[in-house]
Amino acid sequence: MSPTPIPPAPISREDIEAKFRAIQGEAVELESEAQDYLILGIAAIGVAVVFVAFVLGVRRGRSRRTVVEIRRI
User: Fold this and answer.
1) What is d(CA 19, CA 15) in angstroms, rounded to the nearest whole number?
2) What is the CA radius of gyration of the chain?
3) What pTM was computed for the model?
4) d(CA 64, CA 58)
């Protein structure tokens, strides 16, 4: 004969609250990690934009540079 299964204990309010707190704690950890990566990404994009603007400015400055030649008469 097979053993009879043990009926599960009823779920109490404390069980639900404990599980909710565990899930909420994990969500807070993931949120803080995501914020760190978001800030890092925004900073990297900002540095890239400044670098591209600098390079384009240098190129434009070279092409628009005026050469002045002074001659004595």
Assistant:
1) 6
2) 33
3) 0.51
4) 10
The model's pLDDT over 10-22, given as tens digits with 9 standing for 90+, comes to 888 999 999 998 8
How many residues make up the chain in this entry?
Answer: 73
Q: What is the CB-side half-sphere exposure of residue 57 using CA atoms within 13 A?
A: 6
- For 61, the token pair is 């400055």
CA distance 69 to 62: 17
Q: Which residue has the higher pLDDT, 1 or 42?
A: 42
- Of the candidates 35, 16, 38, which has an alpha carbon nearest to the alpha carbon of residue 27? 35
| Predicted local distance difference test score (pLDDT) of residue 1 | 56
**Alpha-carbon distance values, 39 to 42, 44, 48, 65 (Å):** 5, 9, 14, 39
The one-letter amino acid at 7: P
Q: Can you say whether the dihedral through the CA atoms of 48, 54, 55, 60 is positive or negative?
A: positive
